[in-house]
Amino acid sequence: MTTKDKTTFIQKLALATPEPIARKARGLSDRALAWLFISPTIILLLAINIFPLLWTIYLSFTNYHANRPNMHVRWIGLRNYERILGREDVWEFMQITAHFVFWTMLLQVLIGFTLALLINRNFKGASFWVTVILIPMMLSPAVVGTFWTYLYQPQTGIFSYIINAFHNFGPIDMIGSVKLAPWAIIIVDTWMWTPYIVLLTLAGLRSIPDYLYEAAEIDRANSWQKFWHITFPRVLPFLMLAVLFRGIENFKMFDMVAELTSGGPGSVTEVVSIALKRAAFESWKTGYASALAIILFVTVFALGNIYVKALNRVKQ
Amino acid sequence: MNKSRNKAFSISESSRRSKVVAGTLVILYALVTMIPLVWIFLTGFKSPPDSIAYPPKVFFTPTLEGYVNLFTTRSRQTPEYIKSLGPPKTWYEELVRKRNMVITGPSRFKDRYMNSLVIGFGSTFLAVFLGTLAAYGFSRFRVPLKDDLLFFILSTRMMPPVAVAIPIYLMYRQLGLTDTWLGMILLYTAVNVSLAVWLLKGFVDEIPREYEEAAVIDGYSRFQAFVKVVLPQMRTGIAATAIFCLIFAWNEYAFALLLTSGTAQTAPPFIPQIIGEGGLDWPAVAAGTTLFLIPIVFFTILLRKQLLRGITFGALRK
Hints:
The complex is a heterodimer. By secondary structure, chain A is an all-alpha fold. In chain A, about 75% of the residues lie in helices and about 0% in strands. Chain A folds into two domains: about 5-60, no CATH class; about 80-315, MetI-like fold, CATH 1.10.3720.10. Chain B is globular, with a radius of gyration of 26 Å.
């Protein structure tokens, strides 16, 4: 379809609108039109996000088990919350999640920031290679997790083979070993999401006006001074935005880990979402899992709030 | 503008040598980061023994066995039985019989792929439709509590899917929406509409109001002005938003895993379940992965100019 065809198609569509509706829409005041346009979205979100959320809050105060529909549901007050906050394994998977978030963010910032600085030198063909670099972050995390189990095969996998080409460790069992499994998920996440940091850092670098560097040139600043006084402070908000967003995403990480290690071996890679899935859909402790979900919600919601504020600041 | 930047840098840092060094390092990273994807692509054309050979085989005789296994179910038979069947009628039967197996029927991969397409496109259409209206509403009208509503819309996207899945699971069980196309389409629409609103609002904001005002002066109603003046100018934005929504729905896994099991299951939870004789049939898994990822790679290349916008909810442009 050419541009022109599309325009006429949309116009035809408008003309095809049944007369009563069209007349009504034409006659609507701005205020009514605004609500007509906005309310379907709000209603959908209320039905599929907010109503279930309220239900979760209610369930978190009960002893409900979803696999026992005939069981008498009892109101047990804050007992679920007390149990979660008092139990040691909860702190354990919080620590596992924190470890995952910390190392993925650190590695991705270091690699991503360096890459972005290099890309910004505008070498020939840069835009093509940037596109290549960006591909992993668009893929399905679950499918990525699946095929990395193949790459991570200790005997026959390409990962172990390549590492051994540099230093002979023998077969490397990334997924099966208690020591290495947390790093297995960190490596895959870093492979996948470093491009995110690259993209945002590049945006930051490109937002720096040239005259700052020109002025620095006149002042005879050396490259380190230019980096430290111009580049870094200007890029920092973008970098923090990226870290905040990816931090939230990794805090609730589920797909990739579920397919790669599914929390194992034992529970050394059991991040919060995996623990939640196990409680809700394997042990069927719905009430308990709901309380855990609410705790997760509150945390993510608070971080999300900060994210939006940061977003608005960077935008200005 | 680009030229002046080059100049600014050329005074200070980007000498020709440093450009070559930077380029080499970036290309090196790009090549390393592509190894897993290239490897999976190659594995799809390996025979099962080649896929688990030590050392890993870079050079091998390509075969379509993985793809045949992906699309069929097979059963092992005695050589005598296979001989009694007569010569194989098709190339893929011949391929399967070499391993002492016969094809017993099509696998479920095609159905799962279909489900992914239907749910992906269905939810994308709905999300973009609702998102366009809401984005226009937020961009052009004075809406009470606008910022709060926009934050509310965005915050629904931040919710951890596993946590949302618990009540949705209970709700869908009551409504009979578990494992249905409609249920999944509604759910993905709800998740995607927030992205659609934020992205599209950015695009509407960029269209000067004067165009519509001129149209209104010419006797158009506000609604007509929206349809005839604004919508045509939003085409790029709508297309980019649609692709982002499609990619999300295509890639989604947690809801699909927890809320579908049979009829409406999409490809992501299915691909890991592709199992052959004696463990995972890696070439078949790789073949399924390849077919699943190719559209995404294609769209990523198509979208590269809009990527930054997409991943920051429309806040950052170039």
